[in-house]
Design goal:
The chain is mainly alpha-helical. The chain is 60% helix and 1% strand. It starts with 33 loop residues before the first helix and ends in a 6-residue tail after the last helix.
């Protein structure tokens, strides 16, 4: 069709297209979106992210095997004398804190509540990703991605109560009812309060995304009527069962901690412990934020599942490594530190959200800014609970294993010999036979 360079009147062009549907028996129903998903999700970049995470896991695993197995596999044959601590080799200095390593931490109630909530989040996240990989969550029904986690969270309160009360009992706690109540209300209450604030902001600005008040008021009902009783059931079972049997007895007076070097100070450990797990999820975090705030379809759930598994392994490996180095420095305060070390990943997650806001988004308006950073805080808080729980559980297993294989010896105390008591008569002589037979009487 030829068109003149200049037209005196408007030219109307009609576009049309035709579609023909062909039945295909080779494509399964659950995988019908795959050809679109892989085009929209930049599969090559995500594979690169997954391989990057895998390399981090292999690197940390190699370091763990090289540093730990060379020393710990011989600790069963190593006999440590507690009478001469200076004679203990430097690779076995961690054995000197055997009387303090299982000492109950401060704020054991709060830590046990965090552990229960972190275990709850981890189970819900794993099952949600598993169901998504099996095809139960599809782009045809995007609301299911929010429905499944909420239903699983309501129905899986028992593991949270069990984990929380079990460790609370191990820390020497007795108030298991208060522990169960805090487990069911504290962390979910913080998230619900933040979401309520964000919803109020949407109400104030007459946003169409605001949830009506009556609908919002019904959200706590399943949480209070279903989740809370299940948490109490799990707490009863966890507190009733036997607590973790300590390998070593705890001494009366805490051991003095030597002056720590720069690399074993808490701040350095937190910075190192959080950066490596964050590095394993940074690409996946970018795609997650893009799907949330740029309204792009996200349906390739195999990559998040792989990254989730690699994140768990990375948190466990880096926390065990740092815990071992702190024990070598005779610092036995591993309980809270193991939780905070891997939990510090949440700080990097929030920092990346801030970076993403200033460099990738063009959000204007006070309400939009509050919504974005409010959601980022909730995301970081969930990461903190989950990754911190992974770090603590891995160190708890590690410390129990290494100290169960240690043999200690203590020299018998030297005492003055007890003088032999003999019977003496009036003439200054004695008779051992009569004394043994008890026949001699006092005169």
């Amino acid at each position: 069709m030829g068109v003149k360079d200049r037209l005196d009147d408007n030219l109307d062009i009609v576009y049309s297209y035709s579609i023909s549907f062909e039945e295909s028996n080779s494509t399964k129903w659950l995988s019908r979106w795959d050809y679109i998903s892989y085009e929209l999700s930049n599969a090559k970049i995500q594979w690169f992210s997954t391989m990057n995470s895998f390399i981090i896991v292999v690197f940390l695993g190699g370091m763990l095997a090289l540093v730990l197995l060379r020393t710990l596999r011989r600790c069963g044959a190593q006999v440590i004398s507690m009478d001469d601590p200076e004679s203990v080799p430097k690779h076995f200095r961690w054995m000197l804190v055997h009387e303090d390593v299982f000492r109950a931490p401060r704020c054991g109630m709060l830590l046990s509540v965090f552990l229960g909530s972190g275990a709850h989040i981890g189970i819900v996240a794993f099952l949600t990703l598993l169901l998504a990989c099996l095809g139960h969550i599809s782009p045809a029904n995007p609301g299911s991605l929010a429905t499944y986690p909420m239903v699983l969270f309501v129905c899986l309160g028992t593991p949270a109560g069990y984990v929380s009360s079990h460790f609370y009992k191990m820390f020497g706690g007795k108030r298991w009812i208060e522990n169960a109540l805090l487990t069911s209300l504290l962390c979910p209450g913080i998230v619900f309060a933040l979401c309520s604030i964000l919803n109020v902001v949407l109400w104030i600005h007459d946003s169409s995304g605001a949830i009506p008040f009556m609908t919002w008021a019904t959200f706590p009902i399943p949480w209070l009527l279903v989740t809370t009783p299940l948490v109490f059931l799990g707490a009863h079972l966890g507190f009733k069962c036997c607590a973790f049997e300590q390998t070593m007895r705890t001494g009366g007076t805490p051991r003095e901690i030597p002056k720590q070097r720069c690399v074993t100070r808490p701040v350095i450990g937190l910075l190192i412990g959080g950066i490596l797990p964050f590095g394993s999820i940074i690409i996946q975090l970018f795609f997650t934020l893009r799907s949330i705030w740029s309204h792009q379809m996200y349906s390739t759930f195999e990559f998040p599942m792989l990254v989730f598994v690699l994140l768990v392994i990375t948190c466990a490996e880096i926390t065990i490594m740092l815990c071992y180095f702190h024990l070598l420095a005779e610092d036995y305060r591993w309980v809270w530190r193991s939780f905070l070390t891997s939990g510090f990943t949440a700080f990097y997650v929030f920092a990346y959200c801030v970076h993403y806001y200033f460099n990738k988004l063009a959000i204007t308006g006070a309400a939009s800014i509050v919504i974005y950073f409010g959601v980022s805080v909730i995301m970081a808080f969930v990461f903190f609970l989950f990754t911190g729980t992974v770090g603590f559980l891995s160190c708890w297993w590690f410390v129990g294993k290494i100290f169960s294989a240690v043999k200690y010896t203590t020299a018998a105390p030297v005492t003055d010999p007890v003088p032999e008591q003999v019977a003496v008569d009036e003439e200054g002589t004695y008779d051992r036979d009569e004394e043994r037979q008890g026949m001699l009487s006092d005169k």
